[in-house]
């Protein structure tokens, strides 16, 4: 007996047998198992390529089984599918299955039989989708070639970049079905199967769809190599690469001759199935395009815009994304097909109040799409009737955007013709994807706001004030996005009435660094209430950091330059104390420049840091420049401190703000953009006070 | 200069050798390599001679490793330097005399 390569776990033995028959026709060797343990034992075999699970297995929900499958360390390479009736597969369950790793969900009619064309179409669509996705991820057949070659359904791939869109791949079933050997198929356009028995109208439908790069399903009367006529149900879908270019068409052929020759109602059935299959293909294509575009953005606004643009014109001529809060409806995004519709949408009120019974409020409180006739559509758009214009008389529906158990908005899609159930289902699928994307963007925004809030707290709220000095400060967090820095500066009065100017840098980045910078800054302020010497203030911070380390077993290190400033008869006395920090630069009124301060120990590492002090006298118009190492590292140079001194000396007689700006610019000129903080003070005449800060 | 990180064992000594720029992006990689090395009983030699850049994030990883080593009954980490950028950073931090440096 051949070794099974597919397992069906379904207690409904009729359905299991029907699927077994169809999968066998596709070339699989199928084993049916009825309980979880047999299933788990059975998949401990890498020869299993396909697992088909019923929505419940005995008393056990399939979600548990999917979870168990994922937990197996020797994860089987098999493609896992959940198959059941529509009643067994509510929308939220389908979503859950997908999240748990199911590759597909097959909706099969109750009491399906092996001969049922719907079963064949569901499987054909499944294989087509696997094919399309496989091409999308870049491998033509790396993973699924074997599965495709096994199938009893005909598959071709055509390459539209080549002349006349020829077949570049056909599987064995296609050669069997048509009677042509592979070398007579490859390189030819599919129309070689057509003869004068083929309905020209169906050919035109197919041709137009291919020209317009749309998916299509038609039934064509084709002719085999031996002259026999067969009815070929053809599903064609474009396959796009990551840039959205159509690189292949995938064609799925199902021989439906037997069904056509049966009872007349088979035709109607096939017609219905075809529409279903077409809708499914369209949905697959649409969502596979939508998801990366929605997921790519972490900006809520951009996610909303992407959503609106995706829906138009695929689903309707006008799309709005609305948020609802406390009886107020806010338009977050709107997209219209064509300038006229877009203008009309943009002219609608951006915010409006909603009365009870407003369709948007109803949609926000519901789970399912809410159909909107033209009167309700007008209400949904503007809260009032619409008189003329391109928005008049549109129909459609309002779909809630779900995310994490809440509704984060309402998607409104409107078109001139009443939109069908398929479109509602498609919009609902899109809404599920979009809701999550929008919510992710919201969470990201919240995090960023928290980070920015923290960042603000690392810096003083008000401009620095120092007696007898003008002050200019600059600050820039390195990098883009939500990176926040660990640089800080501050100036405050200490116990004996002197001012302490501090600038510092916490190791690391992000919210943790910003939080520690905030703590460092407030610790220095507090220490200044009890200590007068800058070295004593820094020592207090060192003790705090070591305690922090002992409590968290994670070290954080802080470099600080502190300058204690006291007024003298001629200007300011500055007592400089450095802790692992680049030395400040003094620029004299005459333009000469000197580096001041003696090296001291980085804070947070040892109990007894060396913190020598050095006092310099600053006369009228003398300047003191303090900076963080972002400035010296940002300037690419072998001796960064000398470079800062040089830069300062080049800005003699320029205003304090000009100097600060030039230093900030210079810090951004290197290849490495770190955080930068800069404080520049200039001694002013007694009584004169200039305050500047940016 | 491209970032590389090697750990090799040689006669009871684990050599952890980062090369390139030790900064915000690469510091976590070195931290992980050091934690991994500390799971073994061997001595660890951190060879920083191949670094072309080191910022405060990199310094923090080195200092944390030194602190962890000191909390053990016998210290077993030393750091190989040969001047240049690493020494400049350590001099700025005023920690040249406080670390187990080998020249």
Automatic annotation (TrEMBL), chain A:
<dbReference type="InterPro" id="IPR035965">
    <property type="entry name" value="PAS-like_dom_sf"/>
</dbReference>
<dbReference type="InterPro" id="IPR011006">
    <property type="entry name" value="CheY-like_superfamily"/>
</dbReference>
<feature type="domain" description="PAS">
    <location>
        <begin position="140"/>
        <end position="211"/>
    </location>
</feature>
<dbReference type="Pfam" id="PF07228">
    <property type="entry name" value="SpoIIE"/>
</dbReference>
<feature type="domain" description="PAC">
    <location>
        <begin position="216"/>
        <end position="268"/>
    </location>
</feature>
<dbReference type="InterPro" id="IPR001610">
    <property type="entry name" value="PAC"/>
</dbReference>
<dbReference type="InterPro" id="IPR001932">
    <property type="entry name" value="PPM-type_phosphatase-like_dom"/>
</dbReference>
<protein>
    <recommendedName>
        <fullName>PAS domain S-box protein</fullName>
    </recommendedName>
</protein>
<dbReference type="GO" id="GO:0016791">
    <property type="term" value="F:phosphatase activity"/>
</dbReference>
<dbReference type="InterPro" id="IPR000700">
    <property type="entry name" value="PAS-assoc_C"/>
</dbReference>
<dbReference type="InterPro" id="IPR029016">
    <property type="entry name" value="GAF-like_dom_sf"/>
</dbReference>
<keyword id="KW-0378">Hydrolase</keyword>
<dbReference type="InterPro" id="IPR000014">
    <property type="entry name" value="PAS"/>
</dbReference>
<dbReference type="GO" id="GO:0000160">
    <property type="term" value="P:phosphorelay signal transduction system"/>
</dbReference>
<dbReference type="InterPro" id="IPR036457">
    <property type="entry name" value="PPM-type-like_dom_sf"/>
</dbReference>
<dbReference type="InterPro" id="IPR001789">
    <property type="entry name" value="Sig_transdc_resp-reg_receiver"/>
</dbReference>
<dbReference type="Pfam" id="PF13426">
    <property type="entry name" value="PAS_9"/>
</dbReference>
<dbReference type="InterPro" id="IPR052016">
    <property type="entry name" value="Bact_Sigma-Reg"/>
</dbReference>
<feature type="domain" description="Response regulatory">
    <location>
        <begin position="5"/>
        <end position="123"/>
    </location>
</feature>
TrEMBL record, chain B:
<dbReference type="GO" id="GO:0043856">
    <property type="term" value="F:anti-sigma factor antagonist activity"/>
</dbReference>
<dbReference type="InterPro" id="IPR036513">
    <property type="entry name" value="STAS_dom_sf"/>
</dbReference>
<dbReference type="Pfam" id="PF01740">
    <property type="entry name" value="STAS"/>
</dbReference>
<feature type="domain" description="STAS">
    <location>
        <begin position="3"/>
        <end position="103"/>
    </location>
</feature>
<dbReference type="InterPro" id="IPR002645">
    <property type="entry name" value="STAS_dom"/>
</dbReference>
<comment type="similarity">
    <text>Belongs to the anti-sigma-factor antagonist family.</text>
</comment>
<protein>
    <recommendedName>
        <fullName>Anti-sigma factor antagonist</fullName>
    </recommendedName>
</protein>
<dbReference type="InterPro" id="IPR003658">
    <property type="entry name" value="Anti-sigma_ant"/>
</dbReference>
């Amino acid at each position: 007996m051949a070794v099974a390569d597919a397992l069906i776990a379904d207690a409904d033995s009729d359905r299991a047998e029907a699927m077994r028959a169809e999968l066998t026709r596709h070339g699989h060797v199928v084993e049916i198992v009825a309980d979880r343990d047999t299933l788990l034992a059975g998949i401990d075999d890498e020869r299993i390529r396909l697992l088909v699970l019923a929505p419940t297995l005995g008393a056990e929900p399939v979600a548990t089984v999917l979870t168990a499958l994922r937990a197996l360390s020797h994860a089987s390479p098999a493609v896992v599918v959940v198959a059941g009736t529509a009643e067994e597969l509510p929308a939220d369950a389908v979503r859950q299955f997908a999240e748990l790793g199911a590759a597909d969900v097959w909706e099969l009619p109750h009491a399906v039989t092996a001969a049922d064309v719907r079963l064949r179409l569901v499987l054909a669509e499944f294989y087509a989708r696997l094919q399309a996705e496989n091409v999308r991820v870049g491998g033509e057949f790396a993973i699924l070639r074997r599965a495709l070659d096994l199938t009893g359904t005909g598959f071709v791939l055509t390459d539209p970049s080549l002349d006349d869109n020829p077949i570049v791949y056909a599987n064995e079933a296609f050669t069997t079905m048509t009677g042509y050997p592979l070398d007579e198929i490859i390189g030819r356009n599919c129309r070689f199967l057509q003869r004068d028995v083929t309905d020209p109208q169906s050919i035109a439908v197919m041709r137009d769809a291919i020209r317009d790069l749309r998916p299509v399903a038609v039934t064509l009367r084709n002719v085999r190599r031996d002259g026999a006529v067969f009815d070929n149900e053809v599903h064609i879908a474009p396959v796009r690469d990551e840039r959205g270019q159509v690189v292949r068409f995938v064609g799925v052929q199902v021989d439906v001759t037997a069904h056509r020759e049966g009872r007349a109602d088979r035709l109607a059935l096939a017609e219905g199935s075809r529409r279903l299959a077409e809708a499914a293909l369209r949905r697959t294509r649409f969502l596979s395009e939508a998801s990366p575009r929605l997921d790519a953005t972490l900006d809520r606004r951009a996610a909303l815009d992407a959503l609106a643009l995706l829906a138009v014109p695929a689903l309707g001529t006008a799309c709005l994304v609305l948020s609802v809060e406390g009886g107020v409806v806010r338009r977050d995004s709107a997209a219209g097909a064509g300038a006229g519709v877009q203008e009309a949408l943009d002219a609608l009120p951006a915010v409006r109040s909603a009365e009870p019974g407003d369709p948007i409020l109803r949609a926000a409180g519901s789970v399912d799409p809410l159909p909107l006739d033209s009167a309700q559509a007008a209400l949904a758009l503007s809260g009032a009737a619409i008189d003329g214009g391109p928005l008049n008389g549109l129909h459609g529906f309002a779909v809630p955007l779900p995310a994490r158990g809440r509704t984060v908005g309402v998607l409104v899609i409107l078109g001139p013709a009443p939109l069908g159930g398929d479109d509602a289902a498609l919009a609902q699928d899109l809404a599920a994807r979009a809701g999550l994307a929008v919510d992710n963007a919201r969470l990201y925004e919240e995090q960023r706001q928290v980070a920015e809030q923290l960042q603000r707290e690392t810096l003083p709220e008000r401009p620095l004030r120092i007696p007898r000095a003008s002050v200019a400060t600059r600050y820039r967090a390195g990098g883009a996005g939500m990176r926040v820095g660990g640089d800080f500066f501050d100036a405050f009065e200490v116990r004996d009435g002197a001012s302490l100017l501090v600038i510092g840098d916490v190791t690391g980045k992000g919210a943790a660094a910003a939080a520690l910078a905030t703590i460092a800054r407030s610790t220095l302020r507090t220490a200044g209430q009890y200590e007068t010497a800058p070295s004593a203030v820094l020592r207090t911070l060192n003790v705090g950091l070591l305690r922090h380390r002992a409590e968290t077993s994670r070290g954080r290190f802080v470099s600080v330059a502190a300058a204690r400033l006291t007024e003298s008869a001629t200007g300011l006395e500055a007592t400089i104390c450095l802790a692992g920090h680049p030395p400040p630069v003094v620029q004299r009124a005459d333009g000469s420049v000197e580096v001041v301060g003696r090296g001291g120990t980085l804070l947070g590492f040892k109990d007894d840091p060396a913190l020598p002090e050095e006092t310099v006298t600053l006369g009228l118009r003398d300047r003191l420049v303090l900076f963080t190492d972002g400035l010296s590292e940002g300037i690419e140079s072998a001796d960064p401190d000398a470079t800062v001194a040089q830069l300062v000396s080049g800005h003699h007689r320029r205003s304090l703000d000009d100097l600060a700006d030039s230093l900030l610019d210079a810090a951004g000129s290197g290849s490495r953009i770190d955080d930068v903080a800069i404080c520049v003070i200039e001694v002013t005449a007694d009584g004169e006070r200039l305050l500047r800060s940016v | 200069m491209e970032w590389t990180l090697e750990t090799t064992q040689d006669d009871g000594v684990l050599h952890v050798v980062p090369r390139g720029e030790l900064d915000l992006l690469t510091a976590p990689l070195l931290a992980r390599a050091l934690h991994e090395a500390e799971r073994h009983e061997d001595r660890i030699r951190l060879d920083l001679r191949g670094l072309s850049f080191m910022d405060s994030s990199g310094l923090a990883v080195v200092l944390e490793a030194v602190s962890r080593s000191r909390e053990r009954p016998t210290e077993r980490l030393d750091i190989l330097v040969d001047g240049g950028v690493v020494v400049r950073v350590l001099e700025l931090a005023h920690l040249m005399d406080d670390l187990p440096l080998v020249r």
